[in-house]
Give the backbone structure.
Amino acid sequence: MRRAILAAAVAALSSVARATFGYTSSGSSYTIDTASSNIFTFTVSSASCDITSLYYHGAEYQYSATASHISSGLGSVSFSITTIGDYIKITCTTDTLTHYMVAHNGDSTIYMATYTTAEPSVGELRFIARLNSALLTTSAYPQSYSGDGTAGAVEGSDVYKDSNGYTYSKFYSSVRHIDDQVHWVSTSDSGVHVSMVMPGNAYEGSSGGPFHRDINSDRTSTAGAHNLYFYMVFSRSGIPDKSLDLSFFSSLSITGYVAASSRGTVKGTATGVSSSYQIVLHWYNSDAQYWVYASSSGSFTSPAMKPGTYTMVLYKNELPVASQSVTVTAGGTTTSNIASTNDPTSTTPTWIIGDFDGKPTSFLNADLQERMHPSDVRMSSWDAVTYTVGSSSTSVFPMAQIKAVNNPATIKFTLTSSQTGAATLRIGSTLAFAGGRPQVTVNSWLGPAPSAPVDLDSRGFTRGTYRGNNVIYEVSIPSGTLVSGTNYIYINVISGSSGDTFLSPNFIYDAKQDNYHYHNIEDIQFHHYQQSQYDDHEDFNEYICKFHRNGCGLWSMWWSQLHRCDYMRVWLYLHVLERLLQRALYGPFIGGKPVAGSGNDIPVEDPATGETLCSVISASTDEVSQTITSAKAAFDSGVWSKAPAIHRSKVLSVLARKLEAKIPEFAEIESLQTGRVIREMKAQLGRLPEWLISIKKIAPALAAGNSVIVKPSELAPISVLQFAELAAEAGVPQDVLSILPGGADVGKAIISNHIVRKVDITAGTATGKAIGSIVGSNLASFTAELGGKAPILIFDDADLGAAVNGVAFAAFVASGQTCVSGTRLLVHSGIYDSFRTAFLKKVESITRRMGNPMNTKSTMGPVISSRALERAERMVSQSDRAVVAGGRRMMGTSELDGFDFSEGYFYPPTVVEGVEAQDELFQEEVFGPVVSLTQFKSEDEAIALANDCKYGLGAGIWTSDLSRAHRLSARIEAGLCWVNTHHRNDPSSPWGGMKESGIGRENGLEAYESYSQSKSTIVNIASAESMRATDDWFAEDGSEKRYALAIAVTSPAAGDIFPPTDSITLKWTSVSSDPTAFRAVMVNPSYSYQQELAAQVNTAEGTTTLAPPSGGFPLGKDFQINLMGTSQSGNPSGILAQSGKFVVGYSSSSSSMLSTQAPTTMSNMATNTAAATATATDASESNVNIQPTGVSAAFSSFQISAGLVASVALLHALAF
């Protein structure tokens, strides 16, 4: 924002001999003599632009220990000084601002102006004159003398209390900007005043509006500095007038200064606001702001304004009641009348406490709060109040409600029988702290928890301000709640945060929208509810504002971006917003239903706009512990873990169908909370029932019978929370699936719990290592998909067009925010130039067609957060390689649809050329749309480059030579390797990484089996006589026992090949001379084949011919002959011995070759596993049970099995 901030300085009272106007230099300092009759000189450092001396009327008023300067000082500056007629102009320049100081011949004044082109690196843009408090002892605001706190600090290091209980702080000197034009301090006899004057349009380049406040003055100790804030003016002859003539600036080449002749004005009449209120007009746009009081009749004329289009706001005191647009032209006057349209008191309420005017004026302590701390002895007691409508005075109702001090506030009122229907309660708040907001109980009915204020978080209440961004909370009281006679409303401060006394969550009562974390009540209004219908687009904005408090700004933004869209498209956006914000405040999903949660508030942003979509309250550590205990109880009960597999299958199939029906809605929600373009989300989620239910983390964990706990990503939790509701509707039992939103504390509490037996995460490598160490200490199972830096190898025989398109998809889909994004482009030197040219053309096309992510023609969205944007900017800017495309945050508007990129986290497709293996961009994951270009000359060099990285998740090869593709894919150290494609995956194909890209696999049977444990049960069913004879290992007769009956199969041998129609000769021997009863069974554990081949025999050794069944043995490999013991009933029991594995087929010389059999299916897996792995002695039977591991936890990165499964949610909850 460009700012021109002006100020003028001190004048003297007595007459002294007049000096010569001019300046002198000494080293790096310049001393300017203004030739004032009172002798005024000041000295400026040319190195830093600090004022080091303010000598006036024979005394030094500059504090000796610290200079006067902007903020804490500009540091190094470019300095110039010049004389222009009767003026001396000093210019100090940094990379973000230019600061001017001007002396006028004969004036005891320093005129100042500051122009900025970017957010200054010095912090707050304000001039601080650090003056000698030993001489300047008096101030307009003595309560700002923080150095007088003899009893010490009572809050931080900036609020003090003296021995009398009076409080002091620099914050108690603030005044609303509309009234704040002169700050001053003086000598004790008022003989000299040093003042800061903010004349006319001094605030036009600032921010905050007419009611914003900032520090005016501060005295840190009686012998130290007396600080004057903002821009400095010196004057003598009392307090100077606020009106200063600065027209001479137009002749001094002051950058940013706009002369009166190049400005315009707005005049008109404001109506609908009573003359008993202050009537304020406010104009603002991205470059400037102005304000003025209207007369009692409502007529007004604005200050002289820069040309442009402004939003014009009408205030009733400090409550905005109307707004409209107005255009100002140079040298012109625009007439723009305005009428109040949004006053909450326009309808007559049943009762009202206070007044909706944006100020808590009539409430208890409101008259003192601006100038002292709430703990000051002059304040009335901040007790919880019981207010009786009709008899209590508003002055007994505290202006602020503080969680740890005066919770709750009680309102008692009486209704007639005709007033007991549905009603609406409105609570106006001006300021909030630490997430404080009101939740009401009406008689025994508990109202919903509103969304936490998210835009501002300030100690305003204890620092002397009552105003932030005002909020009106509406509570719809259902019919049947109110009764004829006496009723009670209890207002409680709620918040996921805590604090001591006045720094606990609180809010100030008011009647305007606010996003601070205190609550100040200005008004409480109660009225009967009337259902409204919104049938045309003109009512949309009002509808959205009433629907959700955060919706107004969001809808206004959307409406401005959607003005090119057709009418039905606008309705689509409205539908999405309604669905997404059906609860403005989300919480955990526990016990089969959404709950309020008791942790911290997590704002969920739209990365495309920076707007807050809604808030999510995280789970507390107590809720984590209780949820895990309940999940374990559900697992132990068997309601899901022991349910028949067919039942679990039916429930998950129902869930799949429900999710399938919600795909369009989930696509919209995902696009809003992740920023991914709607085109991507619709394409991906079109396969979601198959993709999510069958393969990813939650589905296999549930399918295996586990209880599952999910911690979703803080950035995108909404779709996971809503998915859990669908799961409950589909029949997933209570406590089997739980969702616990939160930050690292919630994740750690889940994975640290020893009940959790498997953790499955998707996260960064550092996080994965930290989590793995915790999980390992509990000896729980662990699966982790971690970071990636996928190499893409493009060979000179690849189809150039297909390769360019495929590589662009690999690199830039999801804005490069997948763990397998193709980010290291390794290009054969023979096609490097042609590939580079074609690829950069594709990148330019993608960038040119970026726009609103909800536009189906938009190619790529923003990165997911400001942190992700900062990481991409930092890594690219720190590289010394050539950036040949992109490389800077996107600002301005879209060529595609006019979407404003400046508020979102948009970063363009970026290509960096000549990156080498040792570079950070080659080695570290950006997780954004940034790729590197590197050449290679041979296959070996390409493989060496591909593997020269700690990551090994994904890779790609582009070539027309499939022999090369197979050869190289085997050499690349990555768990996934695509050939002539990317981001494709068969749900049955394992997915996971090598090296530091993770542990374990997702997808397919491997994922299912990772959520289960095998268990063997061995039963000896021999007769008691037999057991006594054969199993007494410690018998005294010395005979061989227990293992004496072991036998070995000598033929067929491993690797033998048998034609399917030939007989197999089985030979066996026994170490014992005693015969044993057995049967021969031929099995293939790779698929469902098992056949008994011979009758029971009772010999110690021998040979048996096994004839083929009708049609011959099935073709296949990995066949074995098992010699099975026999039970008392004569049936086969445990395995006594096995042959080597052999092949049924034909040799290479035969006319036909070996054919393969179908793979094992889920339905026969348990049978095959039993046959392959069971062990037993003779006269024993064995089986293998596949059992769920227990409680699983699924996070944005975790999952727990083996009884309880925990999963940490994906960054993008529904990702490729």
